[in-house]
Amino acid sequence: MDERVRDESGVWRDGSFAMGAVVLHATGESLEAALPLANAQGNLVLVMDGYLTNWEELRGDLLERGAALRNRSDAELVLHAYEQWGEDCAGRLEGEFAIVIADLRHQRLYALRDHQGLRPLYIYKDKDAVLVASDIAAIIAAATRKPEPDLDYLANIVSGHWYLRDRTVWKGLGRVPPAHWLSHDRQGQTLRRYYSVPVDIDLSYRREQDYVDHYREVLFDAVRRTSRSHRTLAVTVSGGLDSSSLYCIAHALEQQGRLPAPGLQGYTLAGDPGTAAYELPYARAAAEHCGRSLIEVPLFRPGIDWFTARGAADCDVPLPQNGAMTIGLERRAHEDGARAWMDGHGGDQWLDGTREYYTEFAKAFDLAGFFAALRRDAGANGWGHTLPDALRFAAGAFVPMALRRAKRRRAREARYRDPSDLFWMQPAWRERLLGFEDDYLSALPEQARAQGNWNRLLSPYNCYAFDFLQRQRGASGVDSREPMLTRQFIAFCARAPKWVLNQGGLTKVVHRKAMRGIMPDLIVDRTDKAEFSDFAIMRDFARHALSASPGALDPLCDPAGLRRLTAFESELGIDPARGWELWGCYAVAAFMNSGL
Question: Which residues make Cβ contacts (< 8 Å) with residue 47, sequence separation at least 6?
């Protein structure tokens, strides 16, 4: 883990246990406890990546119960929580974290991840040893028996269809699932979920303004809880609805004396004028609105050799094409002295909403709400488009679940038989992907709203994306902060009716209304998004996939289909809409040829 920027590192050994940590101090409290951290008796030892958002409440609770806290660190709070509640302590912890505790009293290894899986945590059984780490490369380095590539997972990447949430590119090397704790001792292994996303609509106000006020309160508190640092807080300002709002809220909190950091600084990507990546007018408007400076950094656009080398060093597939673009921002923030890095991930995940509000109105027999939504949508999109959709969603409320499942199954089977879909995959793997999708969907709740909320929380692609983002930030020397992925933010979005989020074809409605006056109208009223695709690197990905050494993609891909995907006959006149699939083929070819 040499590439991880750290302020200190430490190791600890006792009998059959060994633990190590590289530590970046992002809060003043973390300076008070070196990792690995042992309890007063020396029979519990902890390593931790991340921080708590409920440190105030947890500290008060533990003190009331008589805990003798030796310092103010989050690690000390977690140790005492484990002493107090044992394995059930996971339900008392909120934040972004991956934690491992060696319990010498019971010869037990205890590991847990936060509710969203924002911090990576992997596990691998290596003969008679169990290896747990926040980095795949650390496990590969420590293992005496190198795992084989997991073709099932690699097939997901090549296809662009992600269903295997808890697996990785290595067979037998899995993820500790988000919102779970894991316990391993001589009797075996236990895995339990400790957090469930809300699925029922139990936020019900008479006025829309009440939802707006509640949302604003939740978001302000989420920003406050995630901005704790002893250094200047770095906030990325893309110019979009989400990150700009966090920047403006952090500014407002500082003005009110409520920001738990000594200051903040905005950072934005400087895309080329005239391109869809040019967001500077919006980002500058946010800074001007707050009367603050803004540091503009060009997009990090490395060549394909950088991506390939990065994947080999990480013992993983290379990053997606846009995965590296913020590296320059992150490194600049670290050079400026910042350690906490805040961004707007989660807004698109939880705020977009859908027209399932027609289903919700129908189930509740709320005719007033149904017709109000119908008038709004028709005013924006016309009756010819709106009425059929509204009736279809409303009818879905009364279709038996068994019938809906059968219809969806037939649609999936037809899609996988369609020669225009996944044409670059070997037929046997297309059939296998259908099985993966069936297994994934069968594990989700049956009710549509619950299924949607669980899929947002535990999306298999997000499980991969959060891992590589954290790995990247660890190498850049910043600690991520995600206000829009805190439990209270997720709970509001999961519990509120869909019409609060989506009206007349406009998404993030409650967010826009809550932020009116707090950030510029220029941003509040945006309906477009930036596009950062790099066509040149996509062509390089295609070339690499086609020129990969014999056998790299043969088990998964049909050679003729692969040439068609890359349009090789027309000199790589590739389809930009296939960017993810092109990256997937390149990434798997690079991984298989890496010699790991």
Answer: 19, 20, 21, 35, 36, 37, 99, 100
Tell me which residue range forms the domain holding 413: 357-457
Map residue 266 onto helix, strand or coil.
Answer: strand
What is the dihedral angle through the alpha carbons of 134, 139, 142, 146, rounded to the nearest 10 degrees? 180
- Which residues have a Cβ under 8 Å from the Cβ of 368 and sit 6 or more positions away? none
Q: pLDDT > 70: what percent of the chain?
A: 98
Per the CB < 8 A criterion, the answer to whether 249 and 280 are in contact is: no
Burial of 291 (0-12, 13-18, 19+ CB in 10 A): exposed
Q: Rounded CA gap, 289 and 248, in Å?
A: 8
User: How far is it, in rounded angstroms, from Cα 596 to Cα 593?
Assistant: 8
- Please state whether the predicted TM-score (pTM) of the whole model is above 0.70: yes
133 belongs to a structural domain: no
Q: Which two tokens stand for residue 523?
A: 């941003």
Report helix, strand or coil for 45.
Answer: strand
pLDDT, tens only, 279-324: 999 999 999 999 999 999 999 999 999 999 999 999 999 999 888 9
The alpha carbon of residue 148 and the mean position of all alpha carbons in its chain are separated, in whole angstroms, by 26
**Structure confidence by residue, pLDDT tens digits, 6-45:** 999 999 999 999 999 999 999 999 999 999 999 999 999 9
- 34 lies in the same domain as 183: yes
Q: Which amino acid is at 55?
A: W
Cα–Cα distance, 198 to 203 (Å, whole number) = 11
The residue out of 159, 193, 227 marking a domain boundary is 193
Would you state the pLDDT for residue 573? 59
Residue 577: is its pLDDT beyond 80?
A: no
Residue 299: Cβ within 10 Å count: 18
Q: Are residues 518 and 564 in the same domain?
A: no
How many residues belong to the chain?
A: 596
pLDDT tens-place string over residues 177-204: 999 999 999 999 999 999 999 988 889 9
DSSP tag of 419 = T
Select, from the ranges 257-261, 357-361, 393-397, the one with the highest average predicted confidence (pLDDT).
257-261
Residue 373 falls within a domain, yes or no? yes
Closest to 309 in 3D by CA, of 299, 301, 319, 300: 319
Locate 52 and state its tokens.
Answer: 């708590």
User: Are 343 and 371 within one domain?
Assistant: no
| Of 156, 183, 176, residue with least CA distance to 102 | 183
Neighbours of 401 (CB within 10 A): 10
As given in the structure block, the two tokens for residue 512 are: 């826009």
Same structural domain, 58 and 180: yes
417 Cβ contact list (under 8 Å, min separation 6): none
pLDDT at 58 > cutoff 80: yes
347 and 242 both lie in a single domain: yes
Cα distance between residue 453 and residue 463, in whole Å: 15
Q: Is 198 contained in some domain?
A: no
Hey, how many other C-beta atoms are within 10 angstroms of the C-beta on 3?
14
CA distance 450 to 427: 33
Tokens 């991880």, residue located: 4
CA distance 303 to 308: 9
What local confidence, expressed as pLDDT, does residue 406 receive? 85
* Of 483, 496, 504, 553, nearest in space to 94 by CA: 483
